[in-house]
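Work package 3, deliverable 3.1, input record:
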Amino acid sequence: MSKIITVAFGDGIGPEIMDSTLKIVNASGINLKINTIEVGKKIYEKGFNSGLMPSAWESLNESKIILKAPITTPQGGGYKSLNVTLRKKLGLYSNVRPVNSFHPFVHCNFPKMDVVIIRENEEDLYAGIEYRQTEQTFECLKLVTKKGCEKIVRFAFEYAIANSRKKVTCFSKDNIMKMTDGLFHKTFDEIAKEYPQIATDHYIIDIGCARLAAKPEIFDVIVTMNLYGDIISDIAAEISGSVGLAGSANIGDKFAMFEAIHGSAPDIANKNIANPTGLIQASVMMLNHLNESATANLIRNALYKTIEEGNHTPDIYNQNISRKQVGTQEFAEAVIKNLGKNPEKLPVANFKNNSSIKNEFLNSDKSNNSIEISNKKLIGFDLYIDWHKNFSDLLNLLKSLESQKFELKMISAKGLLLFPLLDINNMPEYNGDLTSLRFVGKGICGKSSSDIINPDILVNHHEIIDFIKYLCDKNFDFVKYEGLYLFDNKVAFTSGQGE
Amino acid sequence: MSKIITVAFGDGIGPEIMDSTLKIVNASGINLKINTIEVGKKIYEKGFNSGLMPSAWESLNESKIILKAPITTPQGGGYKSLNVTLRKKLGLYSNVRPVNSFHPFVHCNFPKMDVVIIRENEEDLYAGIEYRQTEQTFECLKLVTKKGCEKIVRFAFEYAIANSRKKVTCFSKDNIMKMTDGLFHKTFDEIAKEYPQIATDHYIIDIGCARLAAKPEIFDVIVTMNLYGDIISDIAAEISGSVGLAGSANIGDKFAMFEAIHGSAPDIANKNIANPTGLIQASVMMLNHLNESATANLIRNALYKTIEEGNHTPDIYNQNISRKQVGTQEFAEAVIKNLGKNPEKLPVANFKNNSSIKNEFLNSDKSNNSIEISNKKLIGFDLYIDWHKNFSDLLNLLKSLESQKFELKMISAKGLLLFPLLDINNMPEYNGDLTSLRFVGKGICGKSSSDIINPDILVNHHEIIDFIKYLCDKNFDFVKYEGLYLFDNKVAFTSGQGE
């Protein structure tokens, strides 16, 4: 039975590079059933604001695999990113982007660069949850889950093993974001223990980006969170010499999407000058994912051989290096002619079946072993208010409150402690607007809210609501509430800067 | 009357590079009163977990200016970053980091690189406000204010003018974070109109980082948000050839702090091999800030002359380029000997008084003109619950609720829409845990929560509390509440992915 794939020709240079890619795939002798769907500009303009018609899901549900050319999102409001929609709807939690130098056949400052970036694709700030709640303050939620961290980190290690990689590096900013990025880093350290054959290290994201930009050859596989991964993927591609040469995979438990990393470049469309290499690389990743490694090797080797021969599209053509400037179609024909040949200097592909990670392992005992449910205990809450008078009015009003149950432990604004202050002469500037009031059940905490002296005192939702109702009667304009919890008797919230 | 500065010698190589820097400053003939404070490792170990003794604030309150050598934060929990504490407590909202090539005297891949990065220093994710509220989910708040954006963007333009720069580039990620990063970008576009003599452009952060890493010479002044600024500052410094050569300023309305950009490097401390250039550059920025531009020029020119002469500390020593390898002290002596001389190839400093931005402009009419208070209207709320049963149980329970006032408009998880779905066959995977319920006052919205059909219906806090109390009776375990507002009748919250 032939395998089925869904194919989207996209916009701009999309159709021509997809045409070239499919010609090469067909010439390789593999028998694939190809379902074509329409996506992108035309569909947006028909009023489908995700760039996708509902009928596309039928094809996707059948094939589970999509090879996608770049698309153009029209300017103007209301359009949702097709890629974000696909990633989230199909659960494509892992973005895999190998970037390597083609030295000496394509100019690159880093001849030994050969890095694979594995980016978490569903969480972090990219959930796009935002609120404005005061005149001044806008908020975006950064959400990170244990499961999300575990899946992507395990994916990175499994990828390293399946692809004979030696090292996995973690990038995070856990010196600042101790809970969210801290979770990512801690998960990395824990899962690393299960893979003693793989070397590991960790960089703070700013230093990591700097090292990647200056010395990419020191990295092998990098695993990181969504935003950071977005940034470092682009750095890696750019310094490799050309964004036209890399493909990427977006992989989930059930679905997978493969694409070139570049955009639709409408300015050079229909001129037969676009470089199809990125999409051809994506098709090689797809064939591996389909367990068609022999075909993947055949195409990858022919592609590298063609680049080695110096048949170069204008984006990588260089008088001193290239042999001949060719068009999109001629490039594809050269690749087809080279099917069966191996590159001489560039590495020969030697993928084996099952070298693509399909994540069955995620549903295995391996990952479930580690799940222990914590004991969660409610001890209080932060109430964020919109305050327009001065600080002493606020403090006086708060001090006049009467409660059997709750005590005020902290006032802060944008994370900066305003009460209680160690040194009253060093009151930070306070301009009102969004202000956080921390109330904790009486007797639970000592001096500060992070100093738990009696974790056995209970607080319940009804007590909290009654107290907030009382605050409301006093005309507090609350805009936001965050519960304060202990997990396994450990504090699960941050202190104010200066507490 | 001599001007006063506070000086901190720091840890590791701190004392020796500070000693060299102060010798040069003294030799320049300027009369400064120097107050020394102790910060860093020793102070942390004495139990002050911000790395600073309360007495240090007295000196800072007197001088308003601190020149700080790098410090070492001891390993282990509980220590707060001294830099973050100083930035927040002193309101140092602007980080200024000029990075340039010293080609051909120090090896650099980018001979024409000359970029100044202006980073917002107080807001964004670095407020460090985090919560864990379910077994799975950890949250960090990204907070951005109108005032914060206005201040840093205006600072960048004023800096450009005062320092004869031609272009200011904005970096943000507003294709994803339309409200928070959108505010930054919009503020940039608005303020740019007041400075028609300065060219402007904008990059999405991932592409911007990639361009900076590959072609830094295309940038002049870059202004960006806290996290992005942290990342690009490090990229710029690293690709310039040495992190030992740059200084930085942290500037607020009342205080300012100047430092080298590198760390305390304890492994090379007390060996007379550290490069004091970064801290000397910081002292030049400080002198400018003090309106002592003549002295700033004198020192900067002597410093560049010394580098040009090939007197190089080991970090930048290169057999083919350098003339002589020198120690920390010898380097400082060479700079002192060169006071009065100008570099021949490297640019001659020509700072004028008031070229450092002291932000009086921020309290001027110019920035206050733009403040218009919006009309804020409460229309509903998102209630985040911790849900452990399946989705249909949740939906059934929600459908059984009775309310005269509120209607359920959306259920989502991590930003992904679960209800109402356009196509019920495409239900995303749902595993419980943190789930958001959106309730809006009846009759306010049409089909979706972003479709406002009657903005005149009012909702008040008491109605919301009564309704949440009712939900609480039904055993909803709520962990988080976010109010939903209209500002000037415009929706001030995001929709779910797929809504």
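DSSP finds 14 helices and 20 strands in chain A.
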